Amino acid sequence: MTQLIIGILAIIVALLIIKKVVGCVARAVVIVILIAVLAILYATHANAQLFKPKQKPQESYTVTQDGKIKKRALFEKKPKAEKVIDPKYLAGACPEVNGKIQWQKAIEVPGKSADEIYNIAEAFAKGYCSERGGNGYNPKTDVSKIAIADKEKHQVVARVQEVLTFENKFLSLDQAKFNYQLVFDCYDGRCLVTMNNLNYVYEEERENGAGQFPAEDLIADNTAINKNGDGFQKGGSQKFRTKTIDAKDALFNRIEEAMK
Prior knowledge:
Blueprint: H1 2-21, H2 24-50, E1 61-63, E2 69-71, E3 96-97, E4 100-101, E5 103-108, H3 114-131, E6 145-150, E7 155-169, E8 172-187, E9 190-201, E10 212-214, H4 221-224, H5 237-259
Antiparallel strand pairs: 1-2, 3-4, 5-9, 6-7, 7-8, 8-9, 9-10
């Protein structure tokens, strides 16, 4: 290829020179000779490419479990990497009490009395309900509200509704309303937080309340997890289970931070 380029450049230079130096006849003869040289160079280059040995495709190998090297076929597909599921979503992640899903977390609050912990719990519940469309006290108008605030028994109970967003793309919004009960039982140096009575409102346009689902129908182990306990069953339960567990973890972490 380099020789061909050099030849073309040499011809251009020669044409420029003879244009000024020689006569018409001599110029024509030189042009014919230069064209012939150019044709020879092109033919030589073409033949060199034609008979150039082809490179073999690079072979790839895999190592088997017993340490042997195995040649892989040219068009063999590489095995797809298995998707690793966080164990926190798998079997046992949604415990049941009397057939109902329930989470509990005991938060140690050393140095604080039951009264002090109750005050923290009540303030947290009021603020948390307010963030979710309620002022925390009006049972008629609030979607999220405090149902019980018993300072004598050191107990706060709130009914909460929040939104789980599964997908939010252009012209595609997939959400569900998530309802649950949140209970604070306060003791000296300790607060027991319980999350139970879970249900969802999904695709509300369904008739006769068909869009309301108890959590047990969607996220319980027997409805969401496969027989081996290491993956999800086919269907739409995975998104409800993972988003619900994430919401529970985030809530318990916030409560623990508030108790410090």
